[in-house]
Amino acid sequence: MLAEENHIPYIDYWLDATDQLVPEAFLRPFARMIQRGTLTKATMVLTINETLREYVIQLGADPSTTQVLPGGVDLRTFDPAATDSQRMRDKYGLGKDDLVLFFMGWIYDFAGLQEAVLELARYREARPDLKLLIVGEGEFYPRLQEIVRENHVEESVVFTGKVPYTEIPELIAAADVALLPAHDNEIMRNAVPIKIYEYLAMQKPTICTKLSGIMREFGHNCGILYIEKPDDAVGVAANLTREDVQTLKMQAKQFIEDYDWDKITARFEGTLTSLVEASHQAASPSKGIQKDLLRPARELVRKPDETTHVGSKRFLVHFGAMLKKFVPFRRNEISR
Predict the structure, then answer these.
(1) Rounded to an integer, what distance in angstroms lies between the CA atom of residue 6 and that of residue 2?
(2) Of residues 206 and 262, more confidently modeled
(3) Confidence band (pLDDT; 50, 70, 90) for 284?
(4) What's the pLDDT score for residue 83?
(5) Mean pLDDT of 257-261
């Protein structure tokens, strides 16, 4: 590996069990074989949660150099007290008395939205105030629109399509309850989507299927209600009392304080600094590290990506940018 030959630290950062994202099942063993090679050669492996850490160790990562770097959220950007909650309701025709359920992200067939739409159809006459606001697109997006039409819930489901990232705080603010009703499959089981942190930062009660990665990361009393299956999401939301909502909001507010990007990136920056200093000393002890290149990671994370839709892996993008700043003389040799 070029990074190893040139004393460049190589960090493998895992947000998902990426081998499971390969569409063709017969190719996944080859993906795992490639991943084993990179994991065993990595200077350090970072994962977004403990469940994923155990997964990569099983693939061959060294336990002593495999750490959890949790996700987080910019609490300046996702601040409910400073965000207009009415503008997006007005824009998308949502009434002040509507109970708005919210989903954002890439729309897969296992996202649980088909089940949510079918449940909305079942509640249509009894609860016409129930609305589902869906932000994002994806491979299942056209089929989901067909399901909405087939079940005559066009007035209950609002699709925004892709939106600028800067609109996300206001869109979440417009909602009453956030949903992550995903299927418990190999792709979602160990995932911890960044949007969960964003929902909680905006103090939205969040209804989520019992996915092991999320349950292990967030636990209980954090603003999340766990459900057994995707079909349960709409019913649980519809039956929340005002007291339930206030309790969940308070839990979310208290939980998320420790997941501010400032705290996460300070830890991340310290990790990178230590690794790069060690690699420079190994390569050329007399030169040391170029301190002016160590721009704090928090400056990168605070800048929203104007063109990225809501399902993007923003932190991974900034991770790459940060690592390249640390190794200016060999930028093109960074593997990830």
Answers:
(1) 6
(2) 206
(3) low
(4) 96
(5) 91
- Return the structure tokens found at 271: 């990790």
Output the six-digit token pair for 192: 């911890």
SS3 content of the chain, % helix, strand, coil (to 5): 50, 15, 35
2 neighbors 327 (Cβ within 8 angstroms):
no
Q: Where are the domains of the chain?
A: 2-72+260-333, 80-258
CB 35 within 8 A of CB 47: no
Mean pLDDT of the chain: 83
Residue 204 has a CB neighbour count (10 Å cut-off) of 23
Q: Which two tokens stand for residue 215?
A: 């349950």
Residues contacting 302, CB < 8 A, separation 6+: 74, 76, 77, 261
Q: Which CATH class is domain 80-258?
A: alpha beta
* Alpha-carbon torsion (219, 220, 224, 228), positive or negative: positive
Return the structure tokens found at 142: 């056209």
Two structure tokens written together for 264: 């996460």
pLDDT at 3: 59
Quote the pLDDT of residue 244: 97
Return the structure tokens found at 254. Answer: 């208290």
Local confidence band at 306 (pLDDT 50, 70, 90 cut-offs): very low
User: Does the pLDDT value for residue 142 go beyond 90?
Assistant: yes
Contact 178, 206 (CB under 8 A): yes
Tokens of 138: 């994806």
Q: Is 142 exposed, middle or buried (0-12, 13-18, 19+ CB in 10 A)?
A: exposed
